[in-house]
Amino acid sequence: MSLDPRTPVLVGGGQLNQRSEPVEPVDMIVRAARLAAADASAAELVERIDSIRIVGMLSWRYRDPGLLVAQRLAARVRHTVYTGHGGSHPQALVNDAAEDIASGRCDVVLVGGAEAWRTRMSLKARGERPDWTRQDDSVPVPETRPDVPMKDPTEVAAGLDRPAYVYPLFEQAIRVASGRSIDEHRDVIAGLWARFNQVAVGNPDAWVQRPCTAEEIATASPANRMVSSPYTKLMNSNNSVEQAAAVLVCSVEAARRYGVPEDRWVFLRSGSEASDTAQIAARPRLDASPAIAAAGRTALELAGLTLDDLGPVDIYSCFPSAVQVAADALGLSIDDPARPLTVTGGLTFAGGPWNNYSTHAIATMLGEVRRTQRPGLVTANSGYLTKHAVGIYAPTPGDGFRRASAQAQADAVAPTQVAPTYTGPAELEAWTVAHDREGRPVTAMAALRTPGGARTLARSEAPEVVQRLTTEDLAGAKFDVSADATFDPS
Fold this sequence. Notes:
Layout: E1 8-17, H1 25-39, E2 51-54, H2 65-73, E3 79-83, H3 89-103, E4 108-116, H4 117-125, E5 143-145, H5 153-157, H6 163-178, H7 182-201, H8 214-218, E6 226-228, E7 231-232, E8 242-251, H9 252-257, E9 267-275, H10 290-303, E10 313-314, H11 320-330, H12 346-349, H13 357-372, E11 376-382, E12 387-394, E13 402-405, H14 407-411, E14 424-435, E15 441-449, E16 455-460, H15 463-471, E17 478-481, E18 487-489
Parallel strand pairs: 2-3, 2-4, 3-5, 9-13, 10-11
Antiparallel strand pairs: 1-8, 4-8, 6-7, 9-12, 11-12, 14-15, 14-17, 15-16, 17-18
Helix pairs in contact: 1-2, 6-11, 10-11
C-alpha cells in the first residue's frame, strides 16, 4: 500500500487486570505498554517512544508519570503530557497524537493510564499509605490538559455533586420524554445493561466477567443496593479495580522501520471534539447532547463514512443514561442485536473507571477493527455529559487522518435560562432520590421549571417528598422552591 510516510497509525493496544499482588499505577502502565508492543509484534517499539501522554489518575499523585514510565521503558522521550480529570481525555490524546505525528512533531507516541483504587482503599482501611514513587518539586511539570468542571454552585446547592446523582437525573428526563412508566423504563435500562454484561463476559480484559441477568441488575438487594434511583449498584461504574491500558500510535514510516506487520495497523481516520455547557441547569434538554451529535456527525464526515458503514461501536458507558443520550445523538439503536454499543462491556463490568476507560475501549477497538475489517467508532465523555471526543478507526486510511472541532455546531443550540436563586412555584421536570448504604431513600434532588420556563435545581429531605419521588411518577407536579435551594409540595 502506497502511503504518505507521516500517516498516523495505531499499531498496538495493551490492557492489564492486576488481580494478585499490588502494583503501583506507573508500573501497571509500563506493563500495559509492553503488552501493546507485543500486540504490535514489535517489542522494541517501547524503547523508540518519543512522547508519552498519561491520563489523569486518582489512585496516586504524580508530578510527571510519563517521565517515570519513560525511565522504566528505557525510552528517550522528548515530550510528556499529564491530563486533568475527564473521561474524554484518552480519545482527545489519541487525536492529538495523530495530529502531531502527521505534522512531524513525533514518531512514536504512547497513550495510557491506570488506576489502583482497590489497593488504595484496602490500605486506607488499615490506616496505611502505599509505598509508591514520589516526585518532588524539582521534577518539571509536563504539558497539561485541564480538568472538566463538575462543581457548579447551582448543582452543589441542590446536592447534585457527583456522577452517581447527576446521571440518574438525566435518566429520569429520558424516561419522561419517552412516555414510559417507571417499571417499563427500568426494564429497558436493565436490558441495556444486561447486553453490556454479555459483552463483558466474552471480553478477556473485562474486570467482571460474571453473567448478570436484567432482573438481577434491576432488583435492589443487599449485594446490589439502590444508589440513586433508578440506578442500583450494577448500573453504576465500577471503581474497585486494578487496571491499566495503553495504545501505541506511530507514523507509517516508523511502523515500517521498527517492523510492525501491516496486518496490525489500524488507521485513525478522523477525530472531533465538542462540549455541552458545563452548567447542567443551562442544558437545552437533560435527555440530549448537541455536542455529541455535532462531534459524531463531524467525525463521520471527515472520515468519509456514514453510520451504515460502521462495524464495531463503543459508546462511553459510565451509566445507562450516558449511553442512551449518545446513541440518540448519533442515530444508533440501543437494542440492535447486530451491533452492541460496547466492545468492552462498559464501566460497570469491564471497568476502567474515572478518566481512563476509553483507553481500554480504544485498545479493544483495535482488535475489533482487525477482526471485522470494518470501521469502528469510539466516543469518550468528560464530566456530566459535558465534554466529548470521537474517533473513527478503520482498517484502511481513506484520505488520511483529519480532525476538526464541532464546537460551533454545538453552540448553535441555544442554552436554557437558569434561575439560580429562584423562589416560588415550579413544575417538576426530572428527579432522583439518593439512598444510604442500607438502601433507605434519604434525599430527593430535582430539576424544576419556573412559570417563565427557566430551570432551577433543588433538593428535599422531607420524608413525604422523598418517599413519593421514590415510587411515583410526579413529572409536571407543582412544588414550591425556597431560597436555600430546597423544594416542598405546593
